Amino acid sequence: MITLYGFGPGFGLPEISPFVTKTEVQLKMAGLAYRKEKAMPPASPKGQLPYIVDEAESVADSTFIRAHIEGKYGFDFDAPLSLQARAQAWAFERMIEHHVYWALVGARWVDTENFAKGPAHFFDGAPDHLREKLREDAQFRVAENYLLSGLGRHAPEEDVDLAIRSLFALSVQLGDKPYLFGDTPCGTDATAFGAIAGILTPYFESPLRQQTEKFGNLTAYVDRMMLQYYPEFGWAPLQQEAA
Predict the structure, then answer these.
(1) What is the C-alpha to C-alpha distance for residues 158 and 146, in angstroms, rounded to an integer?
(2) Shared-domain flag, residues 73 and 95
(3) Which of 59, 48, 66, 65 is nearest to 6 (CA)?
(4) Which phi and psi angles does 114 have, rounded to 5°?
(5) Is residue 204 classed as helix, strand or coil in its secondary structure?
(6) pLDDT in tens, 189-208
(7) Residue 67 and residue 97 share a domain
(8) Local confidence band at 234 (pLDDT 50, 70, 90 cut-offs)
(9) What predicted TM-score, i.e. pTM, was given to this entire model?
(10) Of 14, 211, 17, which Cα lies nearest the Cα of 108?
(11) Structural domain of residue 67, as residue ranges?
(12) Could you report the per-residue pLDDT of 86-122, keeping only the tens digit for each?
């Protein structure tokens, strides 16, 4: 059986990491049995989560895990798509992972209040004399990567404006379809769901979340995907809507 290593639930989400969410949803899409274990990035062969262990083989990075699933198990995540749509799906995935994701990082790690409420707790189990230093070092490293991504070089409102342009593109692509490319989910839907749910979780307040909530079809899309792939999870926006 495949073992998926991730952070686990938190921040109002069934899985903290958008990339682990992507892989978990793709495992569900492929109908593969798996078990999930908690881990931290240093345990991974590439120093990042997710990674999987499939029999004796370890595979790290969500994109390479997808390639492993397709190669070993013969599952084509983009089977319904034309060659042109496959190319478009890849472009949207790169946009999400290299642009939208970093806006999420800014809202979650760079914002002082959100960091204290969320990622700072990753280090709660560290020894008292090391805890604050570990928190400061981790936040500094993430902020540095955020800067290197390009988004971190802009004022916060400019960062959000750029992210919203990418989310607008996703909203237009989705339109009134159930999934990004039609009536059947494809691999990029797992990527989009992980990132947008990470932005929309009510656990964190941010201008990015406020602006994203204005895309009604994207919020409905996340609600729909959450019910489909995590039916047992109490997704707060749905609970608020029901109330």
Answers:
(1) 14
(2) no
(3) 48
(4) -70, -35
(5) coil
(6) 999 999 999 999 999 999 99
(7) no
(8) confident
(9) 0.93
(10) 17
(11) 1-77
(12) 999 999 999 999 999 999 999 999 999 999 999 999 8
